[in-house]
Design brief:
Elements lengths: L1 H18 L7 E5 L2 E4 H12 L2 H5 L3 H23 L6 H35 L2 E10 L4 H16 L4 H8 L11 E5 L6 H8 L11 E3 L2 E12 L3 E9 L10 H16 L4 H8 L11 E5 L6 H8 L10 E3 L2 E11 L4 H15 L1 H15 L3 E2 L1 H10 L7 H4 L11 E5 L2 E4 H8 L12 H21 L2 H4 L1 H23 L8 H10 L5 E2 L2 E9 L2 H12 L4 H8 L11 E5 L4 H7 L10 E3 L2 E11 L2 E2 L2 H32 L2 E2 L12
Amino acid sequence: MRNWLVLIVMIASFLASSCAPEHSKIVLAEFGNDKISIGEFENAYAKNTGGVEAAKKDSISKYKNFLDLYVNFKMKLKDAISRGFDSDPALTAELNDYKDKVGVSYLIEKQIVDPGIKNLYEQRKYELRVSHIMIRDSVDQKAKALAYAIVDSLKNGKSWDEMAKKYSADQYSKNLGGDIYWITGGTIIPEFEDACYQTEVGKFNPIPVKTAYGWHIVKVTDKRERIPQIRASHILKDFKVDSVKTDSVAARKQIEDIQQQLKNGADFAELARKYSDDEGTKANNGDLGFFERRMMIKEFDEAAFNLKKGEVSNIIKTKFGYHLIKLTDIKPLPTFEEDKENLKKIFKRARYDKTYAAYISNLQEKYHLKINDNLVSFIIKNNDSTKIGSNYWTKSWRVPVKDSVIYSYSNKKVTVDSLFSRIEKLPEFANNLLTEKLMKNAVKKETENSLLTEEAGNLEKTDEQFASLMDDYKNGIYIFKLQDDEIWSKIVIDSTGLEKFYDQNKDKYNWGNRVKFQEIFSRKDSLINAYYSRLEKGESFDSLASKYTERNGFKEKAGIYDLTEPTNPLAKAAANLEVGKYSEPFKNGNGWSIVKLLVNDPVHPKNFEEAKPEVSGQFQESESKRLDAEYLNKLKSLYKPQINYDKLEEVFKSN
């Protein structure tokens, strides 16, 4: 019997769970034939409150307030569709214009910049020790052929160091086996870096890479996790005895003595202050601050970046002398979000142009771009000192070619007239002389714009985030038009209505306490004290202010400030005086002031004219709220919303 009971309970439980709706599909509200599910509500709420984690921490009362607003919003959108906004030519044109403008920017950010900086971030997690053999020749094909020949020799067992010494055009590294020290992403030429990051440690890349400097065969000799920055202190003993003589032996003996003191327990900072020859750092305990790889001379850099925190180096020799280095701090690798803006700067400076060009090249192939080069040449040859703008439309050479297709893409054609109509609106072309360079730049820019716009036009189908962005903008222009139709256009502002509103709310419009005062201002305390002495002897405040105040624009006004509330230091000082009395000199900003109270205007009501600007603003706000409430009542009467507040307990509770 017990087994049967357990079985019945299990079946009932299974049926209940099978019949229960998925959490995200639980209905929070219904209006007309439409529903708002928990899933839709959660997405909307999280979008407006900074994400899901923040949204989970909010209270039921906040969810309730948002749900009320969201239902109103959705009813308005439903009303907008019923009015035919989705087929309104003006609204559709506005949406398409926005889509074109935002789409291109979005495309560049998502398809070019974001992947670029993410790749850069991954590269910059590591640093590589790199060697290269650089081949240079005035004839590029010869350089390329030699580079590939060297690769073949290396594959057949030839010594890397010997080949670098024999063939490399890099005079600084050829005798060091081509070693160019440590690099990380974003520090040197992108194509060189990329080849290095594609190469295993201890191996060379079999495909020579071309840069502006020649052809390179790259070899990675070491790889390690990158340390972004370190902080170090040092003690330097230089070789100089005086401005002429040097003595490296004496300097070595001195640094060895200091090293021994450190081993005996002496304080590094104290020894740096006492003995270091680096006048720029010794007073600060030898501190060099934070620095990145390759910012210091190579020998110093290598020693410092191989230390552990708190560790002191062996004696290091550089061209400046002998050093003892202490590592005092290490900055950890930043997260992607922390480093994002810096990565963008690096990418746009060093890699954007090349990545952008490759992206455009792909679009040219994808959309079958064809440029009528013969027509471009004809325009360049016959332009007859044409200026972009009104001058173009009057030129005789334009007539036979104005409707000719200058470029086409994706079954779309752009004529000569269309091209010039576009570029005359752009600052870099408008009113400029039509030179060969300008014409080619114009064709390049407009073909790129056309291709990017074409690609952006497909984003709504391929990118959910962009589709959501466009949906938000569409909803925004629909709501804006509804507000205009139902509220703003119905607000009538006239004197009769404003006066009536003023009479109903008189007690809200008052002048605060205000003062009218005079000031004598000087940038020198000696002068202000002299003026005060003259006032004490009976000289006129008006006269002194008219002659001597140094406040710009106030001499001609005898230093008078019209009625103002005492919210700044001058007005506050004046408000503490009796009418007709003046203050002692006091410090004020970049100078000194004496103020005299002329009028003390106490709190009193504003008349209609004085209150009119406030009345007008508050009247419009009051009418907007009234009309909006009337409109929402009409929608509620039409769609009869039903809101299940009890279901809000389930919001953000799913796993």
